[in-house]
Amino acid sequence: MTRILKLTPALLALIGGTALADPLPYSQGDRSFEAYVATPEGASRGTVLLVHDWDGLTDHERAQADALAADGYLAVALDLFGTDAVLEGIDDYRRETGALYGDRAEFRARIAAGAEAAAGLEQATDMVIAGYCFGGAAVLEAARAGLDMAGFVSFHGGLGTPDGQDYSATPAPVMVLHGSADPVSGMADLASLMDELQEAGVPHEARIFGGARHSFTVPGSRDFDESANAGAQAAFRAFLSARF
């Protein structure tokens, strides 16, 4: 998928706030990972973890982290595939995501390892975790696992709940930002998720963007929807303000 960035560090400096970016190495089992850390100028308003799409940690997630840092948040874009993962095309993306969907314990362990590494940063505070597409599914996995977060946000993520899982351990509110024309997870999937969260007593909300398809937040993708993306980003910032 071709990525066209509209946010650069230079532009972010012009619109307010100077983000300082650094790598954050960590490990899980025998695998090495490297997150991308964007640090705000001045005191942090809160910590936001970002989980990437199925093609791994790319400039899209780095730009989102930079934008969050410009807004005053400590932003950490996690890596769930590892530094040695080969990510050259769709077959590679399917291999990496399929391996984690097939091993939920490892899936959760990698998310937790990234969160633990982020918690060790000097400015780290309470955390919200958010993710895009595959990352949105990862966020819901983290919510079902009971990961200690102040909130969970899924951008056009996979919404299905695997057999044997539920939201009884979810410790904080869940927000779902979704397009009504998403062919991957449709409105029936969203309704089922809302029912599950309601039954589990988890505070939740959904913002539905009419006509938006999958990957509507990703500039350069065939599904990018500028209006829906702007609405989703505004809702995300409001959610963060309410959590911190």
What is this structure's SSE topology?
Blueprint: H1 9-15, E1 20-28, E2 31-39, E3 47-51, H2 59-70, E4 74-77, H3 90-101, H4 104-119, E5 127-132, H5 134-145, E6 151-155, E7 174-179, H6 187-200, E8 204-209, H7 226-243
Parallel strand pairs: 3-4, 3-5, 5-6, 6-7, 7-8
Antiparallel strand pairs: 1-2, 2-4
Helix pairs in contact: 1-2, 4-5
Keywords:
globular; 8-stranded mixed beta sheet; single chain; alpha/beta; disordered N terminus; about 240 residues; 7 helices
Low-confidence stretches: 1-18
Structural class, please? alpha/beta
The count of β-strands is: 8
Query: At the first level of CATH, what is the class?
Result: Alpha Beta
In whole angstroms, how far apart are the ends? 34 Å
Instruction: Please indicate the count of domains.
Output: 1
SS field, number of helical segments: 7
Oligomer: single chain
Q: Strand order, main sheet: write it out.
A: 1-2-4-3-5-6-7-8
Describe the protein.
This protein has a single domain (9-243), classed as Rossmann fold. It has 7 helices and 8 strands. It has helices at residues 9-15, 59-70, 90-101, 104-119, 134-145, 187-200, 226-243, and strands at residues 20-28, 31-39, 47-51, 74-77, 127-132, 151-155, 174-179, 204-209. It has an 8-stranded mixed beta sheet, with helices on both faces. A hairpin with a 2-residue loop joins strand 1 and strand 2. Helix 1 (9-15) runs parallel beside helix 2 (59-70) and helix 4 crosses helix 5 (134-145). The model is unreliable at 1-18 (pLDDT under 50).
